[in-house]
Amino acid sequence: MKRILVTGAFGLVGSDLVPELQKKFGPDSVVALARETVSSDFKGILEKGDVRDSKLMADLVKKHDIGEIYHLAGLLSAGGEKQPDLAWEINVDGLKHVLDLAKEHQLKVFWPSSIAAFGPSTPKQNVPQHTSLEPTTMYGVTKVTGELLCQYYFEKYGVDVRSLRYPGLNGYKAKPGDGTTEYAIHIFYGLVKDNYYECFLQADARLPMMYMDDAIKGTLALMAAPSEKITIRTSYNFAAISFTPEELYQEILKFAPDFKVEFKPDSRQKIAEGWPQTIDDSSARNDWGWKHEFDLPKMTQALYEGIKQKIN
Ligand code: SER
Questions:
Q1: pLDDT at position 36, please?
Q2: Beta partners for 263?
Q3: Is 116 touching ligand 1 by the criterion CB < 6 Å?
Q4: In the predicted structure, residue 307 carries a pLDDT above the cut 80
Q5: Ligand 1 centroid distance, CA of 116 (Å)
Q6: What is the set of domains in the chain, with CATH numbers?
Q7: Ligand 1 pocket test: which of 12, 72, 90, 139 has the largest number of ligand atoms within 8 Å of its C-beta?
Q8: Of 75, 77, 143, which is best to mutate to test ligand 1, by the most ligand atoms within 8 angstroms of its C-beta?
Q9: What share of the chain is helix, strand, coil (3-state, %, to 5)?
Q10: Which residue among 38, 69, 105, 177 is buried most deeply as judged by most CB within 10 Å?
Q11: What is the per-residue pLDDT for 152?
């Protein structure tokens, strides 16, 4: 069997996806590519390098006989505002390198888009699959560009590239990244370490969210679906739950009644205000059977237990 390459292998999604792929296809079938961060207990095939380096990427595909790429390397919304040029290079140029390799070597590709592809002109509730995509962050701009590139490579060259518009993903294996939805992970570090958290979003900033196990399950289901079931080649709307910081706080108070949260919104609040609150993901549900499992209470328990164990 040809091997699977995962870029951004130690990021928020990669840290959960790589072990799942290793479990499903065998540890020898997965190549983890990292730019800087590598977890010290990683076991498996590891490569160091940058997705902006097209020669390195081409060499890796040949060296490891790659047949599939999960291209997860990317800057998030808040990080992208700090370094917009870098966000473009990694998020767009990096994706183009992957798609060019996919065209040359008939690789199957997964690439994540995001709710950040939406913008202030998108409806706030139940966003349909086909809607206005006018984001105001560089991250969002790179996601819309990437979605169109994916569709173009599918239509023009037959590249089997599949994509999901990830909502805020909440897991505990990786450190939370430089995103806007990541308060929902940081809050648990505050809870376990200090019994206090200063939230950078307003109490009522409702955003689409998902527990990481659901995201991994959905990603693998999308990639396993027969090609004729995939009707969207830009990126699928993909949803589970939506909640506000206040609602998450109230959920935590049920088992940690002394926990204190203060709301001190910063520039990330404006990013959140540009995004929708709920998403209509019926295309994913109808086309390839997407279904989430984790609601807010279940996600809260899983994150609390996971982060407590990680810290202690
Ligand atoms: N989690 C991402 C962010 O907040 C959204 O895709 O940047």
A1: 83
A2: 199
A3: yes
A4: yes
A5: 7
A6: 3-169+211-237 (3.40.50.720), 171-208+240-278+291-311 (3.90.25)
A7: 139
A8: 77
A9: 45, 20, 35
A10: 69
A11: 98
